[in-house]
Amino acid sequence: MNGNGPGNLVDPLEDPVPGLGTYEDFNTIDWVREKSKDRDRHREITNKSRQSTVALLHSVSDAFSGWLLMLLVGLMSGALAGGIDIAAHWLTDMKDGVCLIGFWFNHEHCCWTSNETTFQERDRCPQWQSWAELITGTSEGAFAYIVNYVMYIFWALLFSFLAVILVRAFAPYACGSGIPEIKTILSGFIIRGYLGKWTLIIKTITLVLAVSSGLSLGKEGPLVHVACCCANILCHLFTKYRKNEAKRREVLSAAAAVGVSVAFGAPIGGVLFSLEEVSYYFPLKTLWRSFFAALVAAFTLRSINPFGNSRLVLFYVEFHAPWHLVELGPFILLGIFGGLWGALFIRANIAWCRRRKSTRLGHYPVIEVLVVAALTAVIAYPNSYTRMSGAELISELFNDCSLLDSSQLCGYKQVSCAEEPGELKPIDYPYWCECKQTLCLIRKPVCPIRNHSVYYPSRFPSGLFIPSMAVGAIAGRLLGVGMEQLAYYNHDWFIFKGWCSPGADCITPGLYAMVGAAACLGGVTRMTVSLVVHHVRADWRLEYIVPLMAATMTSKWVADAFGREGIYEAHIRLNGYPFLEPKEEFEHSSLAVDVMRPRRSDPALAVLTQEGMTVGEVEVRIQKSTHYSGFPVVVSQESQRLVGFVLRRDLLISIDNARKRQEGVVSASQVVFTEHAPAQAAEAPPPLRLRGIMDLSPFTVTDHTPMDITVDIFRKLGLRQCLVTHNGRLLGIITKKDILKHMAQIANRDPDSILFN
């Protein structure tokens, strides 16, 4: 057996065992052990690099591998995001008609080469035909309208059906936005397959279908999941990241920045999003690499140019009028609205998800999706604003309404709210359509205020960035138009004197829409810094940063008054994931002895002794204690003096490997965790030495350590368990799950809702 005689010992530390040091599914990694492994690996490479040129080249390639990996992640994510944007635009237009010169062209691209388009009707051209024109030969009349209506509903149902079926059949993890799970994974939790190749393929395809179906959802959150899938798959090309879970999470943190970079065209905003919202461990090295990867991804997306406007985002605007101090009040009002909306949305969404889990509603996902898609299509089609995508609607609402703009919200037409139809006004009459704008939005209240709490998280890929922004943009545009009319007709009021002259363009409704969008998204997610950067990049004029900051902070304060959790933290808690929120303060005065296990009424803690136990006894102990992920090792059952800690998975792998590789190991063989094997009788089977798999310096606290300190230790060191001692004697153990249950109990929540450790 590999040359090992009866008296030879196999040391797992000196003779590596396959699978040793890995983790089971739905378990938390040991950050301290992973970082220690990486330091040992780096130290070994550095020492060898001084001995030969080959080793030196290996050291250089090892140092460069991280940057190469970031380059590949940026290129792959940017290419996929560009493809998703192009495909989604094409399928969205397919619901209305088809291009005769090439079915693969969307509506805009189909009419690019046409010489028969006008400024007011730039999307009308003979090359593009509606379904009514193809089927009936005419686009006029009630029957043609019904044909287009039916075809719109048909395509919406088909796209949503394909999306939900593909997710259910091939990749159940591809549903929802994925950000709550990614936050949990970045904190050290293991979810096998969540970032796998099938999840990436199905998420990419179904994201296109879901967005094209017309449901009120966005692709920005799912793009973070897509980028993290790319990073996880590419990590397997590099040994340093394949074999170390902590190093892999550094790459995933950078990938989260890449996802937001390609979603919003904001590389800096993406880095700040990863730092502020999703990352658990974010060293300075990860900051640099995140910035590089986000830059590469944005460059790749810009090269593809999916929107055809030479911009990274669809809703790029340029505001020309400055804002004034008087407007700070309305901006703060938008922040209050955003906070109230965010708190209401989170409560409604969590209540709906709980109902879906606890009732028969959750047993019929396909029917649920089809019913919601059908209702949405029926309501959306008659309204041109609900029929357009969320990003296009936001682009309309952000519009600055310049003289060369053909938007319906700011078309300088021959009809006024105050004048008779047909009466012409000069082209430079800037408020000609403002009443029309207000009526246009008020008459269309169904817009994205369609309650997208039903869709998030849905049975297929869905995000909430765009729907939340659209709600805020509508509210902001309405308030902005109201302020514009107030300033126009009452320019002699004291609040407008000195800066708003008669007939001047004093108020920019598009700016109010942008501030409202930031406020609503901030109220739902509780983002602040990264959110402001996302929205500043829409105009790139820093003078608008103050309104955005004021509205975003107000939104966060108002939403926090109703609950400290954002939508992602609420879903983490709903799913029972073991996530210690860094933003949440522990204010209770309990001690470690109050939280540790075993409690006074519980059986004694299962431990192993450093010598004296046989392989059979250890296996029985492991089988009986299936809910333990590891065992403390003590000197003896009587003394309970702590020696170390050994993981259950490592024990099982080492024993199984020893039976195969070490001759003579049987159930009666002694298991020793000491440095030197004890003397044995000549006829005794060879001992099994397992000191190499034992953690000789497990983290310990005394029984009187305050729990607020213990919680800080778990958060900052990423611990999965901590042993409790009294004068060196082992008393119990505290796991992350124990802490989360204790915190839930203090907050009057169900402690059994924490499902994993």
From TrEMBL:
InterPro entries: CBS_dom, CBS_dom_sf, Cl-channel_core, ClC. It is a multi-pass membrane protein. It is found in: Endosome membrane; Membrane. Keywords: CBS domain, Chloride, Endosome, Ion transport, Membrane, Transmembrane, Transmembrane helix, Transport. The chain crosses the membrane at residues 67-88, 149-171, 191-211, 223-239, 251-275, 328-350, 362-381. Gene3D superfamilies: 3.90.1280.20, Clc chloride channel. GO terms for cellular component: early endosome; endosome membrane; Golgi apparatus; plasma membrane; synaptic vesicle. CDD domains: CBS_pair_voltage-gated_CLC_euk_bac, ClC_3_like. GO terms for molecular function: voltage-gated chloride channel activity. Residues 596-661, 694-751 form the CBS domain. The keyword Ion transport applies. Belongs to the chloride channel (TC 2.A.49) family. This is Chloride channel protein. It comes from Sphaeramia orbicularis (orbiculate cardinalfish).
